[in-house]
């Protein structure tokens, strides 16, 4: 299976569907999950220093036999490592744990007020040195990006935010589009909290798909890079089996109305 890709604002191609490996207390399962995802056609792996599993990511890719150049690896700088020099050091540690010389995408994990400009300057240095193919941010909302863009020399290629129909803010996606920033959504499955929502169940039955598959397809049809997380083989296979159906415009519009601000992570709008 070939997964569609999107072209970032610097010309780099990024798969639209990948595997998120935020899995606290499940490091022993992360390597298997990645191997199963790669078998299912996944070529995008999203990790972070804070997840504590960059070495498992490296081990899984190595054991898969798939060329490194075929796999898109994302990692992120954690809050306590922000600031120019600390970010450079944190990036070097991530590369060492991932056993790579160049990462495909490096992100600022959260907008930490006192450090975010210096942290972005470090990412620009990393990018200009050719050690990251693209750089971006995570959990930034338009107010954070407006501030960042007053000093940035490079526009972020990606903003990774929590995204499902239940946390969907169309004005944020519109902002990204206006600024030529690709939206990437994490927690598209709302960590299972909405799997029995009657509105979602009814639609899933109509398409003869699971509620999880419907949620992933909704994100993809919004043009969002989507990274569902699972450590179960059957669920991983199901999550990547979403390219044989299309949600109608009418049903997309209906799902767009599901917003109730259900989140599994903190709301970045609360960060000044």
From TrEMBL:
Binding sites annotated in the UniProt record for substrate: 109
MF annotations from Gene Ontology: oxidoreductase activity, acting on the CH-OH group of donors, NAD or NADP as acceptor
Keywords (A to Z) from UniProt: NADP, Oxidoreductase
Domain NADP-dependent oxidoreductase: 23-259
CDD domains assigned to the protein according to its UniProt record, in alphabetical order: AKR_AKR1-5-like
InterPro entries xrefs: AKR, Aldo/ket_reductase_CS, NAD(P)_OxRdtase_dom_sf, NADP_OxRdtase_dom
Pfam family name, one: Aldo_ket_red
SUPFAM superfamilies (alphabetical): NAD(P)-linked oxidoreductase
Site (Lowers pKa of active site Tyr): 76
Active site, renumbered: 51 (proton donor)
Family per record: Belongs to the aldo/keto reductase family.
Name this polypeptide is given: Aldo/keto reductase
Organism: Spirosoma pollinicola
């Amino acid at each position: 299976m070939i997964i569609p890709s999107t072209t970032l604002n610097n010309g780099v191609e990024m798969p639209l569907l990948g595997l998120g490996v935020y899995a606290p207390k499940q490091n022993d399962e992360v390597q298997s999950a990645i191997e199963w995802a790669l078998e299912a056609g996944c070529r995008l792996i999203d990790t972070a220093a804070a997840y504590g599993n960059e070495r498992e990511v490296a081990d899984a890719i190595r054991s898969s036999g798939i060329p490194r150049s075929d796999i898109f690896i994302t990692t992120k700088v954690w809050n306590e490592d922000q600031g120019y020099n600390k970010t450079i050091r944190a990036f070097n540690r991530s590369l060492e744990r991932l056993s790579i010389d160049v990462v495909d995408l490096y992100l600022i994990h959260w907008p930490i007020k006192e450090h975010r400009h210096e942290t972005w300057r470090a990412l620009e240095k990393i990018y200009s040195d050719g050690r990251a193919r693209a750089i971006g941010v995570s959990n930034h909302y338009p107010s954070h990006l407006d501030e960042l863009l007053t000093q940035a020399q490079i526009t972020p290629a990606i903003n990774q935010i929590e995204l499902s129909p239940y946390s969907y803010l169309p004005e944020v996606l519109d902002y990204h589009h206006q600024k030529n920033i690709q939206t990437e959504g994490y927690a598209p499955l709302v960590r299972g909290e909405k799997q029995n929502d009657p509105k979602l169940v009814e639609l899933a039955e109509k398409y003869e798909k699971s509620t999880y598959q419907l949620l992933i397809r909704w994100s993809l049809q919004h043009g969002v890079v989507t990274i569902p997380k699972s450590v179960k083989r059957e669920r991983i296979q199901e999550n990547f089996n979403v390219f044989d159906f299309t949600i109608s415009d009418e049903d997309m519009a209906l799902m767009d109305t599901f917003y109730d601000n259900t989140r599994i992570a903190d709301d970045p709008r609360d960060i000044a």
